[in-house]
């Protein structure tokens, strides 16, 4: 994500950015002040020499689901986020030009996989990642990944779909140290919170769900799972900078 503290912009207080992102009637992110990119249709490349390339997009997600053994329970607005950065990192050898590893963001952390473990579109040189339904975690293969234990937790569902985002079709380079003609946009180095602050709370929607859970054993599992949820599921305090996990 680059470094710095948005020093070139006239407004420096984090509070200015906390509520500038809104969702209009068509569920489109709008930002009248002109600080962030005008379009989310472009895939943005931040290229780091010697460390592969980084790609990310701007979107929002909502409506996580809880899995209790064989039962799936919608959790309403719990988990809704606005303006989260999605990204993966391709690590490419500067000597051979071959793809070595790929990093996929997954909630508050992520993971690396080696090239032989990746799936490629049509058997060609395009690695495939699967974004979870109603979430923002990325995985190397389709299926269910459970965020919890003992078959109880938050569902991360992925599967093959006709809805595909091809990062090679429409993109722009926003940062590359070796390309002097590329001017970094101001938002690239913004390192503080932005977007709305939301607290979904355990007492409202989650306590309401608990009433329909049958049996003390399942209720106990439910409470344990809810208490173990990450803060990003229970609310939002405005996303911060894109975080990269190095191996």
Features:
247 residues; mainly beta; six-stranded mixed sheet; four-stranded antiparallel sheet; 35% strand
List the helices and strands and how they pair.
Blueprint: H1 14-17, E1 22-23, E2 29-30, E3 43-47, E4 53-61, E5 65-68, E6 71-74, E7 81-92, E8 99-106, E9 109-114, E10 119-120, E11 127-128, E12 130-131, E13 138-139, E14 143-149, E15 152-158, E16 171-176, E17 197-199, H2 201-210, H3 216-227, H4 231-234, E18 235-237
Parallel strand pairs: 3-16
Antiparallel strand pairs: 1-2, 3-4, 4-7, 5-6, 5-15, 7-8, 8-9, 10-11, 12-13, 14-15, 17-18
Explain how this protein is built.
It is a single chain. The protein is elongated, with a radius of gyration of 20 Å. The model is unreliable at 1-35, 52-73 and 238-247 (pLDDT under 50). It has helices at residues 14-17, 201-210, 216-227, 231-234; strands spanning 22-23, 29-30, 43-47, 53-61, 65-68, 71-74, 81-92, 99-106, 109-114, 119-120, 127-128, 130-131, 138-139, 143-149, 152-158, 171-176, 197-199, 235-237. The chain has one domain. It is built from four helices and 18 strands. It has a six-stranded mixed β-sheet with strand order 9-8-7-4-3-16, with no helix packed on it. It has a four-stranded antiparallel β-sheet with strand order 6-5-15-14. Strands 1-2 form a two-stranded antiparallel sheet. The chain has 247 residues and is mainly β.
């Amino acid at each position: 994500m680059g470094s710095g503290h948005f020093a070139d912009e006239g407004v420096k207080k984090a509070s200015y950015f906390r509520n500038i992102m809104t969702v209009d009637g068509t569920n489109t992110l709008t930002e009248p002040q002109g600080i962030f990119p005008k379009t989310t249709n472009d895939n943005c490349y931040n290229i780091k020499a010697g460390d592969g390339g980084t790609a990310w997009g701007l979107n929002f997600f909502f409506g996580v689901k809880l899995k209790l053994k064989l039962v799936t329970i919608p959790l309403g607005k719990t988990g809704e986020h606005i303006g989260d950065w999605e990204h993966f990192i391709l690590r490419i050898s500067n000597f051979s030009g071959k793809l070595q590893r790929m990093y996929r963001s997954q909630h508050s952390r992520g993971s690396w996989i080696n090239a032989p473990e990746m799936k490629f579109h049509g058997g060609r040189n395009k690695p495939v990642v699967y974004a979870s339904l109603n979430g923002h975690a990325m995985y190397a293969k389709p299926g269910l990944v459970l965020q919890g234990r003992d078959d109880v937790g938050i569902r991360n569902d992925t599967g093959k779909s006709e809805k595909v985002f091809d990062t090679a079709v429409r993109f722009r380079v926003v940062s590359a140290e070796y390309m002097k003609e590329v001017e970094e946009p101001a938002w690239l180095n913004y390192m503080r919170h932005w977007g709305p602050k939301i607290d979904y709370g355990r007492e409202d929607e989650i306590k309401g769900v608990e009433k329909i859970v049958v049996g003390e054993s399942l209720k106990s599992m439910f409470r344990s799972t809810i208490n173990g949820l990450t803060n990003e599921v229970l609310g939002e305090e405005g996303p911060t900078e894109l975080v990269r996990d190095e191996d």
